[in-house]
Amino acid sequence: MSRVLDIEGLTVGFETGGRRFDAVREVDLALDGGEVLALVGESGSGKSVTALAVMGLLPEVAEITAGTIRFEDRDLARLGEAEMAAVRGARIGLIFQEPMTSLNPTMRVGPQVAEVLRLHKRAGAAAARRAVEELFALVRIPDPAARYDDFPHQMSGGMRQRVVIALALACRPALLIADEPTTALDVTTQAQILELFRDLQREIGQATILITHDLAVVAETAHRVAVMYAGRIVEESASEALFAGALHPYTRGLLRSIPVVRTGPAAGHPRRLVEIPGTVPPPWDLPQGCAFAPRCPRASARCRAERPPLMPFDGGRRAACWHPHVEREDAA
Amino acid sequence: MIRFLGQRLVTIPFVALGVVTILFFIFKAVPGDPAALAAGATATQAEIEATRVRLGLDQPLVVQYVNHVLGVFVGDFGYSTTFRGNPLPHILARVPATLELAGAAIALTILVGIPAGIAAASAHNRWPDVAISLTVIGLLAVPNFWIGMLLIAFLSVQWGLLPSFGNAGPLALVIPSLALAARLIALVARMTRGIVIEELRKDYVRTARAKGMRRGAILVRHVLRNVMIPTVTIIGLQTGYLLGGSVVIERLSAWPGIGDLLLTGVSNRDFALVQGITLVFVVGFLLINLIVEVLYRFINPRLRYA
Description:
Oligomer: heterodimer
Largest interface: A-B, 30 and 22 residues
Number of strands of chain A: 12
Helix content of chain B: over 70%
CATH topology of the largest domain in chain B: MetI-like fold
Strand content of chain A: 15-25%
Helix content of chain A: 25-40%
Distance between the termini of chain B: 10 Å
Shape of chain A: globular
Radius of gyration of chain A: 21 Å
Largest sheet of chain B: none
CATH class of the largest domain in chain B: Mainly Alpha
Order of helices and strands of chain B: HHHHHHHHHHHHH
Number of helices of chain A: 11
Structural class of chain A: alpha/beta
Number of domains of chain B: 2
């Protein structure tokens, strides 16, 4: 399948309160058409900053200091604001975490979606309205023609998130970035929105970056997973391979910290939930070697002295660890 | 909406009754003999006593109060020594001039204050923001009559561009409305700046940027609506200040409004006139607040169905 997005060596620097630090360091990511890549990590791991860098929506205190973001034959990292604005909403759609606040409270929802069509597709008022009603039907909003004139406060969180999804997909973008799209929703609604996601993925076939800290969401949705820790990718592999046996001790830790309900003949004692001891180090105060070493049960003197690069493993997997959960010929 | 309007309109006579009552007893406590004032400086003791009986001032306090309240509600505001009779027609004759001045000041506030605040916010911490913010602090620190005097000194006396007094023609409106609005413009500019900066950080602005909208379009199409909600409230609340300010400014530029008339009433110790004007101010303030509440519902869709 064709390559949609190719990020190489992306580094994003911040300067706040007299401090200079990198929130994202030398990130390499590639995404093919129709593929769903999950970007997983704790808060502060750099996953949202990576997404904002792709969208050109970094806060003013941040800038891309190194690397390229190749998308549709252009390097987004070098595009000016006007060119980037033409890409945003048209070729790349973005879904935010907070459906309660990501729509304008003083505007009816229909026109808010129509706006993006009128902007990029130069659609007339009547055509835009028809297109929006079709989009509302596509994201399974009941009675689309009536909901067009609703204000956001008249809708539930799940319905609002459907509006935001319709907005992001309105121009049929080649790439969709969804930043924690279900986190703010209640569990039942989460399941519905995830199902909608999977259906739309099949129907439209856009490439998707799904940013989440919820591995249960990953298991249900993503083809491939990249795990981020302290601004770097520490492991990347196909979804099934990751859940079958993660290479990096951090990924193992994340997997152990989510509850799994087992049913059927294999159901036994519920597994104990284990949390990872300690916290993510702040990006301006990273240890010299592997950033995870202070919290890692397998850490050695080498881990504390020397940072492991992202190394290839069989099955197209990659991991940045000196002591991965696998036997390798050259591993010590 | 109709029910809401009805409810608010019904409360106005009750507030007015309270104001009439308070004013009545305040003026009873003011030193000086109203009968002597009404009879004139050269009146004999017998003439003063005759005036007292004629005005009903010899009656017990409760009877005077009831007569006064009943009078006010049928439009009889008592005996004005300035006009030698009911001051109401004279007050009402001057209302349009004050409305004209206050309306011009509010229009200036909206047309200058809001854009200035938006300009400052979108240039946050750069030189236009600093320039606007310093001007705002200057305007807030200076009393309005001094601004009026400066405007007269330069615009009319020094450069002869505008008339300095009276209300002949639209040019005469410029100096008094500027002087009256200066403080309000500054206040609204400062508030608007803060609100816009806050709104620009909100998620819906990020959504609009993710749609590919440019900053200017986001300001006009998305932020402005949300800014109008608190701004209308501020302007509404400040109209009380505007009415008070008109007293000084109208005297300064000889504007024939009720503020100017109030000062006349005070210097003549004309109790009926001062009471009447105060009541007109209060009712005016209540009506303006009602208009603001209606506007507020119109701008803020979250209140419309409440």
